[in-house]
Amino acid sequence: MNTFHDLFRQPTRRVGSASPPDRRRELFPGFVERSPKLHLWSADQPIPAQGPRLLIGVATWSGYDMNLLDLIEEAPDNGVRVDVFDVDSVPSAELPRTIPNTSFLQTPFVGYWVDGKLAESASGFDGRKLVARVCGLDLTEVEDRMNTVTSRV
Amino acid sequence: MAQHFVINLGGEGEIADVINQQGPWALDPNWRSSRQGKTLQELVKDGHDFLIAPNDRLPLPDNSVDRVYTDSVPIDVTTWLGPGVQSSEIRRILKSGGEWIRDGTLYYTKP
To answer: Which is deepest, A40, B10, B63, B77, by most CB within 10 Å?
Structure first.
């Protein structure tokens, strides 16, 4: 497994007739640590006082979220620090403190800070658009990728 | 010939001609579909049918469904919204020979 899409596919990649156990949450931190661009966020980390910074809460069971991380990795570096975390690893009561001023009905949960101050936050479809804008992703390419998540093995 | 009953658990209209199930959170006015950013009302207006029911208590009889789809949804875990889709419920509602298509892959066929 190399990409976040591969990680998303892990429970449905059969070995013989048996379905493997879902190990995506366990494997996710290692995938992020091997990434040249993404940083694994933890609650004890301070918000950087300088520069642009995205914090993205993703679900490892969401092909949309995992493919979004692949698109960020594939894009040229534009100087934005990108921190990510597994939303299922954060107590739900902590989410509004982690990413203020958004709803928590659909992932990804996204906050964008500039020089230590929250500039924008959004979730779900709007969260993906925020990531695309801040990371310089082509929105059409993002939506094309989302539309083909289940058809790609 | 009996009608085939197909349901997309956690669905939001991404598969044509199926019933889409969502938890009660889809009734929240801030809820939007993940892929297209549409409200529940907009998806219904587009012609998609919805069943609003908790994931762990689907109001469907045993052995009543020919095919279940799940697409990018939590399975057998509890998330910030509550219980995710339960494989025990899928096994309960599927007819013998019924299929569970998980993230585009045939994942289970009920004996």
So the answer is: B10
